[in-house]
Specification:
six-stranded antiparallel beta sheet; five-stranded antiparallel beta sheet; 5 helices; Ribosomal Protein S5, domain 2
Length: about 210
């Protein structure tokens, strides 16, 4: 698992690119996948959607460092590896890519196949950039704060000043704020809040996790 953060595709989004060479069509679909099972589900969905296509070439990279690709019947290292290399080169993780090929009747040769699979994935990534689908996942520490109503504005400013965000506010007998900080940034906020509250512990940090920030 990376320590700082990584780039990925926005949750529930899909980036699609298409490349054509001598009537063979190469359609690349890229989605967020946080596990091997999610990548397998993406592949199964593409096989069902394009059930009449000859090849469905998968490539995926997880934030854990695990990665895999397959040529799905294409000549060895002409399909899956080029797709995986494009994902690597873009610095993406927790992503699944499936390139579907409709055969156009003309053999493209190993070099032609490698160029075509590469181009399809590059087109999908370009579409992702254009549509704002590439997001940064950061190691985020959730912090829950319990404060009186009178302190709401002041503490909200303290959260912002420390680089955090108030994600949710629950107003009952007092106010419960659920905040998020990039891992490490919660420490000065909690120190400042402790000083403001004359030593009382009003905030409790939870386990850091990767999330869009």
């Amino acid at each position: 698992m990376p320590h700082q953060g990584y780039m990925t595709i926005k949750a529930a989004a899909e980036a699609v690119g298409e490349h054509e060479d001598r009537r063979s069509r190469f359609i690349a679909s890229i989605r967020r996948a946080g596990s091997e099972d999610e990548a397998a589900a993406h592949l199964a969905e593409m096989r069902a959607l394009h059930h009449d296509a000859r090849h469905h070439v998968p490539a995926w990279i997880l934030a854990s460092g695990a990665e895999r690709c397959s040529d799905d019947g294409e000549p060895q290292r002409t399909a899956g590896m080029p797709a995986l290399e494009v994902l690597r080169g873009a610095g993406l993780a927790d992503v699944s890519c499936v390139v579907t090929r409709y055969f156009g009747g003309t053999l493209l040769g190993p070099g032609g196949l490698m160029r075509a699979y590469t181009a399809a994935v590059q087109d999908a990534l370009a579409a992702a950039e254009t549509d704002g689908l590439i997001v940064e996942m950061s190691l985020v520490t959730p912090v829950v704060v319990q404060i009186p109503y009178a302190s709401y504005d002041r503490v909200s400013r303290m959260v912002a000043d420390a680089g955090g965000k108030v994600k949710d506010a629950l107003f009952a007998e007092d106010v419960q704020l659920t905040c998020a900080f990039r891992a490490g940034d919660e420490v000065p906020f909690m120190d400042a809040l402790r000083t403001y509250a004359a030593g009382d512990e009003l905030a409790h940090a939870r386990e850091p996790r990767f999330a869009e920030f």
